[in-house]
Task: structure prediction
Amino acid sequence: MQWTQIKTLFIFSFLILDLFLLTQLLSKQQEADLEVMERNNTTIEQQLEDENIEITASLEENGDKDKLEENYIAVGQKNLGDKEKSELKALDNQTPQIIGNNVIVSNFKDPIKIPEDGSEENISALFGQLFLYPEQYTFWNWNKEMNVLLFFQEKSDRPVYYNQSGIVMVFLNDDNEMTFYVQTLLGDAEKSGSEKQLITPLTAIEELYKAKELYPDDEVTKVDIGFHTMVPLPNGIQSFAPSWKVTVNDKKHFFVNAIEGRIFFSDELQFLEDTIMSMRDKILESDMDQKEKEKIIAQLEEKLDTSE
Result:
């Protein structure tokens, strides 16, 4: 009889414990749900402020409502004809050669020293007469690891980010002298499909925040718009999406599709390596002067070695 009472007591005790734990669980779940609801009702500005993420970039000049409708564009690589060949011959202090009708490889007869401060203004001014159609390109970066200057071609007055078909890569020696460059050109751009409403720069920043690409104490220092590659098509035409470039802490760049809100990830060093390897293979298969070929291939291999 006593054992039966003890068992009953244990059963009631466990029932009470289970009820207590269930109550605690439901309470915590309710608190979590309330927290999510509160967060969903909090503006992105407040969420950023709570984590001390500051926006010092000017968003108004990029977010004019009258300009927030744009198209995807379709662009193919430009084949170089007699006009370009004639213009190349007029360039001083270099021996340009065309590889496969769409790649320019040019050695400088006398290496050209880069200004010591290496500012964007000085570098851009220096290249005014050094390669074809400099007005179509914008200086992007001096990659110090590989010691390469990188320029992106513009379409519709906006840079096309990280595309091998529209770049100038200028190779420097250990004395920061330009020794040769490689250039590719995109052809004419055609609008693709109907105009689409673009997300605002703030929405692009919000996409980065939701993707956990922004951290406490980060600073959004600049927002610009350009184009980023969507997909290469079988006919050699590429589709480019209007994209917000969001710069964080003056050094890290993110690219957000300005129509779909999708984030593009671009690794500059990987892009340079892939492009150099592609150019190396094209030069190896070309019929350019053997001495020039060996000289350039050696420099390309050296750049690849420094990145390993």
